[in-house]
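Lecture notes, unit on binding sites. The following record was shown on slide 14. It pairs a sequence with SN-glycerol-3-phosphate.
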Amino acid sequence: MKFFVDTAETSEIRELNDMGMLDGVTTNPSLIAKSGRNILEVTKEICDIVEGPVSAEVTATDFDGMMREAAILSKIADNICIKVPLTPDGLKACRMLTEDGRQVNVTLCFSANQALLAAKAGATFISPFIGRLDDTGLEGMELISEIRTIYDNYGFETQILAASIRTVNHVKQAAMIGSDVATVPPAILKALFKHPLTDKGLEAFLADWAKTGQKIV
Ligand code: G3P
């Protein structure tokens, strides 16, 4: 499963990329607003850090406006992936952009039927929002499972990009189901490394090693 990081904070992106953990980045208008930076400037900086796809979202809601914004965003770098909302205009833009050779991430997916439509529109990635479904009392992870089945039934090449990931368990479940990608907030990505038995074991090894007085030189 590929790891994307869901943030527009370049210091976090740089740190995770240096660890060799990043296959891409996703941003959205809320994350850009949180960064306090200009969308074109911050997105360009992200594209220079990471080799993989960097999702940049259009904010227009009509087809023509989306295409105009997509043309501007596409010029930022070759690894830009245009993010469009799962609406009729968004899927029309998706079809047009993918036919033009662009990568497209269809976002705000909350049902298997929506994911089916996105695949038929040629989406590169579909972003089902797990955490936001959990927030409503539904089981968000079931949606990943349903989409996996549908895409496998018909051999759709659209990659499932599990989004709105809130816990380390979400990451594990998405991987077990066979999600192609998970886009994960930086804190959750870092938490994946942690286990108390790893810390305890390392402490014991180092204490025993100190007793030997040896050094590996
Ligand atoms: O990039 C979209 C998505 O991951 C949003 O997550 O936590 O705001 O529901 P969240």
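Take-home: Residues 6, 26, 28, 129, 131-132, 163-164, 183 surround SN-glycerol-3-phosphate (CB under 6 Å).
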